[in-house]
Amino acid sequence: MVHSFDTPIELWLNWAQVVIASRGIPYTLQYVIRNFILDWSGTLVDDLPAVLEATNYVLMRAGRTPMSLEQFKEEFALPFTVFYERITPEIPIHQLEEWFHEAFRKYQNQVRALPFANEFLAFCRERKIKTYLLSAVHPDYFEEQYKTAGFAHTFDGLYLSVHDKRKVIKQVLEENRLEPTHTALVGDMCHDLECAQVGGIRAIGVLTGYNTRSQLLKSKPDLVVDNLKVLMELLREHNMGLPSEAFIPLGERT
Q1: What pTM does this model have?
Q2: What is the pLDDT of residues 48-74, one digit of tens each?
Q3: If you write DSSP's letter for every residue of the chain in order, what string do you get?
């Protein structure tokens, strides 16, 4: 098999790996991350309070009992149709969506940028790392939330209203000619991590959104961090590289 390397440093790293391995020393090649595919809700912005309010409005209209925050985080899943098919199977999705949007428009002014989100995007921009947004958020909501959150970052690509990210991840990679070994997806839900695995890219979970650590670990991510600040610190320490295997025991860097 012939391997191609994009830069002299990668050629050098490959040579170093061969030399070190020939001496019986374990070595894991680190690939520099050049592209981040980012989730929106729970990763860059905190929309959980607004989504919970809107969801409980839907449940009320459907004759169901409202959920607490803890119950919602335990029950909610993407694609959202799976969640509603389990909770309100007798009500058509289009009706549930109508109720949800009716309520969410009233609450979305609560949405704010998560701590370190702007710093992380600036960090990527300064290092010429490309960023792509892959989210279920509606384009109208995204535009409003982007302004409210005070973002000034220009994404290299926007993929919005994507209800099942697993079905489009390969399209994102192919359309933008992203090399999987240099690409990572950052998200707060198991669905994000499963999406990354379908695309053959690194899966990084953040604990700033919908899913808990125990939930994320079930999806076998490469890494779980408390927030984007921790991720930035790790990237700095490893010269923008992430090893081909999980190099930080999950939970020790949070």
Answers
A1: 0.83
A2: 999 999 999 999 999 999 999 999 999
A3: -----SSHHHHHHHHHHHHHHHTT----PEEEP-EEEE-SBTTTEE-HHHHHHHHHHHHHHTT-PPPPHHHHHHH--SSHHHHHHHH-TTS-HHHHHHHHHHHHHHHGGG-EEPTTHHHHHHHHHHTT-EEEEE----HHHHHHHHHHHT-----SEEE-S-S-GGGTHHHHHHHTT--GGGEEEEESSHHHHHHHHHHTSEEEEESSSSS-HHHHHTT--SEEESSHHHHHHHHHHTTTEEESS--S-TTTT-
